[in-house]
C-alpha cells in the first residue's frame, strides 16, 4: 500500500469503525518462567481513517482497563488492582498512531500507547487480511498485528521472587491484535 493507493487494495478512503464483537485485543506474558498466560480486553473502541495512501491514514483506539480478562477471576482482580492497571485511577488504555508504512504484506503501525497514564512509542508489525462485504451489506476489513512492550516502562512493576530464582511475571508482554473494521456509511 505504500506505493499504491488505498483503493488498489479493495479498501475505501474514509472512516472505518472497529467492530469490537469481531475483534480481539490480546496479550501473552510469561508466568513463573515456565508457562504463558493469555488473555484479552473485551471492551475496545477504535477508528481507522484511511487516506489516499497509508501515510495519509491513522488509527486510534481506547480500551476499558476493567475489561481485562485472562479467564481467572482471582488473577483478573489482581491485575485490575493498584498493583497493575489500577483501573479506578486509570480506567482506560489508549493508542494513537503517528505513522503507518509498508504494504499489505508487511505494514508497520507506529504510535503512542498509554497505560496507567504513561505514554510510550510502540510499533506494531502487521498484515492486512482483506476486505469483504457481509450478508447485511457492511464492508469489513481485517488486520492482524503485534508488538512487544516492557510492562515496567508503563509503571506495571509488581512482581514476586521465585524460590528457584527469577520472578513470577515477566517484564516482556506481547500485545496481539486481530481486528475487524466496518466502513462508515
TrEMBL record:
Coiled coil regions in record: none
Domain Lipid/polyisoprenoid-binding YceI-like: 15-182
SMART domains linked: YceI (SM00867)
Family named by the database record: Belongs to the UPF0312 family.
Protein name per the record: Polyisoprenoid-binding protein
Organism of origin: Arthrobacter psychrolactophilus
Lineage: Bacteria, Bacillati, Actinomycetota, Actinomycetes, Micrococcales
Amino acid at each position: 500500500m505504500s506505493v499504491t493507493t488505498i483503493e488498489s487494495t479493495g479498501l475505501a478512503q474514509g472512516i472505518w469503525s472497529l467492530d469490537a464483537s469481531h475483534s480481539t485485543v490480546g496479550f501473552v506474558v510469561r508466568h513463573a518462567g515456565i508457562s504463558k498466560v493469555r488473555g484479552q480486553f473485551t471492551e475496545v473502541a477504535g477508528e481507522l481513517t484511511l487516506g489516499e495512501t497509508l501515510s495519509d491514514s491513522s488509527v486510534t483506539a481506547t480500551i476499558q482497563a476493567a475489561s481485562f480478562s485472562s479467564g481467572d477471576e482471582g488473577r483478573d482482580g489482581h491485575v485490575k488492582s493498584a498493583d497493575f492497571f489500577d483501573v479506578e485511577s486509570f480506567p482506560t488504555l489508549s493508542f494513537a498512531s503517528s505513522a503507518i508504512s509498508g504494504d499489505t504484506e508487511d505494514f508497520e503501525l507506529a504510535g503512542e500507547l498509554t497505560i496507567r497514564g504513561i505514554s510510550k512509542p510502540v510499533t506494531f508489525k502487521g498484515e492486512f487480511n482483506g476486505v469483504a462485504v457481509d450478508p447485511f451489506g457492511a464492508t469489513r476489513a481485517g488486520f492482524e498485528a503485534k508488538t512487544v512492550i516492557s510492562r515496567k516502562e508503563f509503571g506495571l512493576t509488581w512482581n514476586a521472587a521465585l524460590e528457584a530464582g527469577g520472578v513470577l511475571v515477566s517484564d516482556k508482554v506481547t500485545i496481539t491484535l486481530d481486528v475487524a473494521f466496518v466502513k462508515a456509511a
